[in-house]
Amino acid sequence: MTRMYTWAARPVVRSVTIAALQEQKGTRKWTQVKANTAEEAAAAAEAGLDMILCRSTNTEAVRKGDNTLFLTAGIVNTDFQTKDDILREAFRKLSLGADAIMTSRSMDVVEMLAREDIPVMGHLGLVPRKSTWTNGLRAVGRTADEALELYRSFKRLESAGGVLVEAEVIPGPVLAEISKRTKIITISLGSGPGGDVDYLFMEDICGEEDDRPRHARAFGNLRRLREEIRTERITALTAFRKAAEQGDFPAASETPSVQEKELEEFIAKLENEPR
Known about the structure:
- By secondary structure, the chain is an alpha/beta fold.
- The protein has 2 domains: 2-220, Phosphoenolpyruvate-binding domains (TIM Barrel, Alpha-Beta Barrel); 225-270.
- Helices cover 40% and strands 17% of the residues.
- The mean pLDDT is 95.
């Protein structure tokens, strides 16, 4: 852990810093997971991961769960449209404890943020929100020409001031070659082991759904546990309904009592009340 200050000038310790990522690029591997709740962030820290990424609107909640892991706040394109919107949101989330800002917007936006010394994470390869440009959800960089253009995009991001990049669904050997030729910290999501950081979504790692992308591996089975919870909830609700219908609930032990004298006096007083 490294002692440092947040953008709000609060003393903290962090699992990793931008300087450490840059110094150790190509010599070690880090791990990152998406976490959007306090519970998920706390679990990631407990498990010993290095980095987390959240939707920017969840930054405060995530930091309540953990205030040690390197946190990138992702600004959703459609939520914040103008450069001013993006810059304001970036500073708001940095003030709440984010360490970097992710955007898949233009290089102009990256450059704007970088000019303020904000660590910026870009998004290259398959960008699902822009998949109309790649003719759907597919690996990007499978031909020599496409791989070369992808490399040039990495270099453009580097020139714009980006320091990290989510590299999504790129052929493994292609990302490995690109990563060796850029200063950017490459975060591999479905792009093989050649990146600097291995990244998966929380729901995929924990096995929350049966329908996972090909690149994702489930290391747990939360779906089974949630199905058990659902079944147990229905069982409990059904038992409650039946007990109420049969007069078994509420029982005398579950109902406040009153002294017989007080009850008789109350009933007598009721006789004088209008019906």
